[in-house]
Write a structure and sequence with these properties.
Number of helices: 9
Strand order of the largest sheet: 6-3-2-1-7-10
Largest sheet: 6 strands, antiparallel
Pfam family, one: CLN5
Protein name: Bis(monoacylglycero)phosphate synthase CLN5
Keywords: Glycoprotein, Signal
Family: Belongs to the CLN5 family.
Number of domains: 1
Order of helices and strands: HEHEEHEEEHEHEEHEEEHHHEE
GO molecular function: hydrolase activity, acting on glycosyl bonds; palmitoyl-(protein) hydrolase activity
Distance between the termini: 30 Å
Oligomer: single chain
Shape: globular
Radius of gyration: 21 Å
Length: 331
Amino acid sequence: MGARLKYGLLLVFVVPCFCQNEWPVPYRRFPSRPQFNSYCQAGVVPFCPTGKASNTMPQFHDFDTIEVYALKAPVFEFKFGDLLGKFHIMHDAIGFKNVDTGFSYTLEWYELVELFNCTFAHTLQNDSMIWCNQGAACIYDGIDTKHWIENGTFVKVADITGDVFNKFADWVEWDNNTAIYYETWTVWDKPDGKMWFDSFDCASFVLRAFQKLADVGAKFNQSVRLNYTRINLYSDQPVYLGNETVVKADQSLYKNITDFYKKFQSHQSYQDLLTHLVEAYIEVFDQQQFYFFYNFEYWFLPMKSPFIKLTYLEVPLPKPNSTLYYRNKHF
């Protein structure tokens, strides 16, 4: 309760004019993708190692026939096999096969430096923080059907023309250049309740990509049923803290935030990791507080039961001119 009162006062005295009238908070798009910070490095797998150059989508003849596939496989399958698939922690992608030419492609959208590295801020020795949270599209030749079929999903969802694909390809380049950061968490007031923040990850990319395909003429096979993973946090109404400049101006607040993220560093000893995970458990579940970063701004989440929950729920394939179907409260 003390933490909630403290940050309620912070809202009154530090940012009295801020009022969030739209929930969930809209994801902010940017005019262009910024240069990648060289500090940020992938731990095991580099981003898009066999992919095409940035902003180079394939182009097809207008009357070519293109098959569209939904692809799913367990996260970290290269390391843990189907282990995370048993908990429905799945990675999503899209496959395209040109029937006329025989060429096929896989399109994915994911974090540039792996999931854990982009979910939490990196804290430095001088107690400053760096966010390595960019996400981007990757398209590469071929579809590894064995990979997707073995532990996941490989299912055709539509046939489209080359003209539809080319229009979609233009959208992918726009989306990739303006939607620049990855967001792991979805934040709600309660299960099936009001959404405070929407995630922005591999699943949400596939959902908005399917929506765009429908908008430009794709007709999806409505008999196909697909589920998607969400990692959910639950809190009372979030309290806005400000951007980096604002929170740095309050030394006590900035220290609280950096101390919180220090508990989630991937490069630390096993003993330190266990200690920090216990501390994080106390802070989130006992003290009921979580510092959340969205649109390059900080928020305080007054956490409440069930605190965190994984869901794997169905989202229907879109129909032409349907609107933002992926924001349905059941997903």
